[in-house]
Amino acid sequence: MKIKSAIFNMSARDIESAPNWSRPEFAFIGRSNVGKSSMINMLSNKDDLAKVSATPGKTQLLNFFVMNESWSLVDLPGYGYAKVAKSEKIDFNRSVGDYLEQRENLRRVFVLIDSRLPPQPIDIDFVTWLADCVAPFTLVFTKADKQSVSKTQATIKAFLDSIAEHLNGSPPVITSSSRNGAGRMEILKSIELALHS
Ligand code: GTP
Ligand code: MG
Predict the structure, then answer these.
(1) Within a domain: residue 38?
(2) Per-residue pLDDT averaged across 142-168, rounded?
(3) How far apart, in whole angstroms, are the C-alpha atoms of residue 139 and residue 185?
(4) Distance between CA atoms of 127 and 111, rounded to whole angstroms?
(5) 196 CA distance to ligand 2 middle (Å)
(6) Nearest ligand (C-alpha, residue 35)
(7) Residue 108's closest CA among 172, 16, 54, 156?
């Protein structure tokens, strides 16, 4: 699928103020700093469509982008940053939870996971929670440019092993790098499939 246009539409504080449209949406979620906004830019072929920062917690609102004038990418605030140290529980903000649970036109969720880290309890908890939501999800292991292919493969295996007891079946997995464009075609292909199903 070719991306012919990518336009920022709006930021919403919560699902009530999200765009009132029926466009299919594809959301990007994961721990703060994992590379969600960078991925939106990579998919769009634009450097600064979504705001990127080396400081975690950059994206605070639900940001909606319209692609090819027909479907939408949604850049969500990350979890696991602000108050998380206080508890092992998932701490993504409520509006993100409402969005993932209730948004009717949400077609697929891409859960981004840092390919350099061993399985993080917060990611395992999040994926376990998400598995009970209606929208299907794909795991995307980010920043693969920072290490060898074999290390990334080891991270993926360890993560899949650690979620296996909580899930029925294994979710689709994509390896990505916003630096070198790895994974871009696979993500767009997955979106295209959902658009035509
Ligand atoms: P929050 O909005 O704070 O939750 O973060 P985010 O998940 O949107 O991450 P963001 O895209 O802002 O990227 C965080 C940092 O990681 C930035 O310094 C990016 O340049 C860097 N980064 C993101 N993706 C990649 C990647 O694929 N490879 C490398 N090497 N760096 C990356
Ligand atoms: Mg961001």
Answers:
(1) yes
(2) 97
(3) 15
(4) 8
(5) 28
(6) 1
(7) 172
Residue 1 lies in a domain: no
Supply the residue whose CA is at minimum distance from atom 4 of ligand 1. Answer: 32
**40 with 2: CB under 8 angstroms?**
no
Is 164 inside a domain boundary? Answer: yes
pLDDT in tens, 95-135: 899 999 999 999 999 999 999 999 999 999 999 999 999 99
Which of the ligands is closest to the CA of residue 56?
1
Query: Mean pLDDT lowest for which of 37-51, 60-74, 75-89, 171-185?
Result: 75-89
Residue 48 lies in a domain: yes
Q: For the domain that residue 133 is a member of, what is the CATH number?
A: 3.40.50.300
Q: Which ligand is nearest to the CA of 78?
A: 1
Q: Ligand 1, atom 24: nearest CA belongs to which residue?
A: 35
- Nearest residue (CA) to ligand 1, atom 30: 143
Q: What is the span of the domain harbouring residue 157?
A: 6-195
CA of 10 to the centre of ligand 2 (A): 15
Number of separate domains in the chain: 1
Give the whole-angstrom CA distance, residue 63 versus residue 12.
6
Ligand 1: residues within 6 Å at CB?
A: 32-38, 52-54, 56-59, 78, 142-143, 145-146, 177-179
pLDDT band at residue 81 under the 50/70/90 scheme: low
First to last CA, the chain: 15
CB 85 within 8 A of CB 64: no
